[in-house]
Design goal:
This protein is mostly helical. It has 13 helices and four strands. The strands form two sheets. It has a two-stranded antiparallel ribbon. Strand 1 and strand 2 form a beta hairpin. Helix 1 runs antiparallel to helix 6 and helix 2 runs antiparallel to helix 5.
Amino acid sequence: MRGEIIGVWSEMWRQVWRKLADHRDAPDDLFCELYRELNKSFTDQLDPATSLAAIVDDTNQARVAFRGTKAAALQGELSALEFLERAHTVIEDFGSEALTNKYFLLIRDFLEKYSLRYDLRRPFSLHPTLPGVFARLMRDLRQVTSQDAALATLMRDFEDCVRDLKDDQSPRKVKQCISAQFNLLEALLKQHPDVVLFNATARREANTFGAMCDQTAVWPHAQIRESAKGIYRFANDYPGIRHAGTAASQIREIEMRDMVSITIMLAGFTPYFTQSLNANTIYSD
């Protein structure tokens, strides 16, 4: 489950709309007005004066058309969200507080049932949650890496390492997981348009993680850049993650709390490492 409305759109008829239509205050033309509003979210919108009018002027035909609308007909996730918010206004205009509240409760229960990535606030507005934003970030990263064979392999290696932790949460496996994520992020950073992999003036390679971070003009503050480089230095210096490391620098054995913390920190840096991730859509679309 992607955590998005569009992914479970087909379930909404049974879980939301049919129950709303069964409410004692639901008007006969409920789906006429809802379908008129839904049309605004279609990729190919019906002509309001002809084809749309023919549907919404007939209550039975409007109900059938509304129920038969597939997720593929919508412009996307954001258009689905905007329709749900506009639908609240449509229902509110019917003048029944009980019906309007029923709609709110049905949507709230639907979000909870399918663990969707939104909070619902009164009177009726849908807001992305932090877990939802993170899930969308990882989904989009998977999409970006799938376009390049080498990146796709590194992404798959990282995800396999995470899955393997279910059966073996030893320090060795945790180190492999962190190392695999760094391999992926380094490969992403090498493709950043700001990065030049050879310093002609110094006549040396400039493809280390730290050097590439220094080249990219994406950081809002030097300390953010330095924090990314600091985690990289940790991975190089801690014995057995990327290199032999320095035994004297190890304070304790690495464990699962480090895996959770470090992988989430590294994922948070990902939008700096590639221009192929759109932060606006990760948050709201």
